[in-house]
Structures are given as C-alpha cells and as structure tokens.
Amino acid sequence: MQLIFDIIKETKAEAGKVAKHEKACIENQHVFVPFAFDTFGALAPDAVRFLKRVQQVASSNTTHVKGQNFVFSKVGFAIQKGVAAQLVARLPAISLYSY
C-alpha cells in the first residue's frame, strides 16, 4: 500500500512541475521532463525513463564500460547527499563553550 501511495505522490509532483513549466518550455521550443523523487530516493516514472535514456547515450558514447546502474547510482548519491545536508542544517547549534 505504501508503494502505491509513493507512486501517486511522485506522479502528483510530476504533474505540478509540468503545469508550472510547460508554457515557458513550449514558447521557447523546449521539451520539459519533470524530475521528481521522494526523500528516500524513489524516482517518479518520467525521471526513470529520462535516466535510462541518459544511461543509454552515455554508454554508447564512451569506451569505458561502467555498470548498468552507473547513472542511477550517481543520482542516488546526489539525492542522499542533499537530504543529509538538509538534515544537518536543521540540527540545533552545538555550543563549543559551556558556561
């Protein structure tokens, strides 16, 4: 049940991003690909399709063969790093001096 809720939430995030940016992209003859994910790194369907395409292009243009999930692992690490930075920023300040 939680998985279904997460997919619905990510799909709503995608729809919100499309609604926000679609007009500007059309006016400038650009394509908009929403890139939505949750706090734990679960990617929305359009984000997965986009990353698979990036992975295909990267692997076809390089001689250095990386693992199948190279792009996904890099994006996953970036998401985790961003979440960690947000959590650390919310920690209460630790006083170096005790009075």
Percent of residues in helical segments?
55-70%
- What is the H/E string? HHH
Over the alpha carbons, how many angstroms does the gyration radius reach? Answer: 18 Å
Strand content: under 5%
List the uncertain runs. Answer: 1-7
Overall mean confidence score, pLDDT:
76
- Number of contiguous helices: 3
By DSSP, the count of extended strands is 0
**Largest sheet data:** none
- In whole angstroms, the N-to-C terminal distance is 51 Å
How would you sum up this structure in a few lines?
The chain has 99 residues and is mainly α. It has three helices and no strands.
Question: Can you walk me through this structure?
Answer:
The chain is mostly helical. The protein has one domain. The model is unreliable at 1-7 (pLDDT under 50). It is built from 3 helices and no strands.
Helices and strands in order:
Blueprint: H1 2-27, H2 45-60, H3 70-89
Question: Which descriptors would you attach to this protein?
Answer:
99 residues; mainly alpha
